[in-house]
Amino acid sequence: MSVSKVFVARLVGLAVLGPDGESIGRVRDVVISIRLSGLPPRVLGLAVELTTRRRIFVPILRVTAIDPHKVTLTTGTVSLRRLHLRPGEALAVGQVLDTHVRITDPDLAELHGEDLTVVDLGIEQGRTRDWLVNRVAVRANRLRLARRGDVHVVDWGHVQGLTQTALNLPGQGVAAVLLQLDGMRPADAATVLRELPAKRREEIAAALDEERLADILQEMPSDDAQSLIAVMGTSRARNVLGAMEPDDVADLVGELPPGEAERLLSLMDPEESEPVRRLLTHSPDTAGGMMTPEPLIVTAATTVSEALARARDPEVTPAAASIVFVVRPPTQTPTGKYLGCVHLQVLLRNPPATLVGDLLDTDLGHLRPEDSVESVTRYFATYNLVCGPVVDEDGHLIGAVSVDDLLDEILPDDWRETEPEADEPLNLTAGGDR
């Protein structure tokens, strides 16, 4: 049964279907227009997450029905252009929920003059088919005024403080967005953050734990990551940079002026900054500049079970886990003499007590730190690999290039921010309904 009134929080997660029932994606947010006149905000459309994890804007006029389990569109033809907020627009969940307001509702006189937290927005479709925000659900922040968890629904006309200016003020809550980010892959969470205004992005980044933030920063364009690190305190910046992979830190600081790059490196503990400094001695478009200095490295005396335990580490990427490099001590890069490698499939085929030294692939060639992007690409294609060793002229393993490192170098610098032109056809329309 279609409804004409609904709270935004109920929409999040609903399946979005075309008129024939074909799945398009899921609702992740609602885009509204905050009007200067104080009139109720207009609902412009939905932020819909496709199965590819990309978020697109679907105009509300394309919605033909909303029911408790799904949102149905008038057409299966939608624009695949990534969601981008225009001036005066806001994300209901991403920006409005958890903000602070005051109310003038005569039926809630005991709450007058108190800061209240927005927990939901009620939207309603009018006779003209337009959807407007007409109700606001709020919760008292001071427990003496209400029992913990009490929520009051107030007409829009009795709410003060939900303006574009107020949304840009510091100190707004972030619980709703953090809940939305929970469980997302770092790359998807990075996309969500990039869609938010800079001030909101900084608030959410400040609320994330350092390990989680480090994972997300590694998936953001360097300029966005740099801007977030720039507003961190010294201690937090040190911990976040220390939690990032050395090659990602090198990518980040390598684009900064020398003085700023040195400032960030000096924040890190020496043992964490040293691998980064070594990477920065190589040109970024060479194997030495692309590699990670921390691949899976073991000695010949390591057993198969021990090597597999290392590969099972959730912090190791699938590409890096595909191959184990065997060296003489020390096992920290630059290592002792490089002896060879053992592929993951070989480890899986052999008894747990077998020594990896008995399984070595010594015929596989290696990369040199000065090898070009083309050379690395040809190497991967020739040997059907997703990770390859980088060995210096003295025979020491100094790192490994994985396929994700190579793709980052091959793709345009702004590949995270732009969409390929090939995505625009597929019977899609231009998003001109806003």
What attributes characterize this protein structure?
single chain; 434 residues; alpha+beta; SH3 type barrels; MgtE N-terminal fold; 7-stranded mixed sheet; 6-stranded antiparallel sheet; 18 helices
Description:
- This protein is of the alpha+beta class and 434 residues long.
- The chain is elongated.
- It is built from 18 helices and 18 strands.
- Strand 4 and strand 5 (55-59) form a beta hairpin.
- The strands form four sheets. Strands 2, 3, 4, 5, 6, 7 and 8 form a seven-stranded mixed sheet that branches.
Short structural summary:
The chain is α+β, with helices and mostly antiparallel strands and 434 residues long.
Number of domains: 4
N-C termini distance:
27 Å
Under CATH, the topology of the largest domain can be stated as CBS-domain
Instruction: Identify the CATH architecture of the largest domain.
Output: Roll
- The tally of beta strands, per DSSP, is 18
Q: Give the averaged pLDDT, no decimals.
A: 89
Strand content: 15-25%
Tell me the name of the CATH class of the largest domain. Alpha Beta
Task: Give the class from helix and strand content and strand pairing.
Answer: alpha+beta
Name the overall outline: elongated
Number of helices: 18
Radius of gyration, CA atoms, in whole angstroms: 26 Å
Major sheet description: 7 strands, mixed
Q: What is the CATH homology-level superfamily of the largest domain?
A: CBS-domain
- Report helical residue fraction: 25-40%
Low-confidence stretches: 420-432
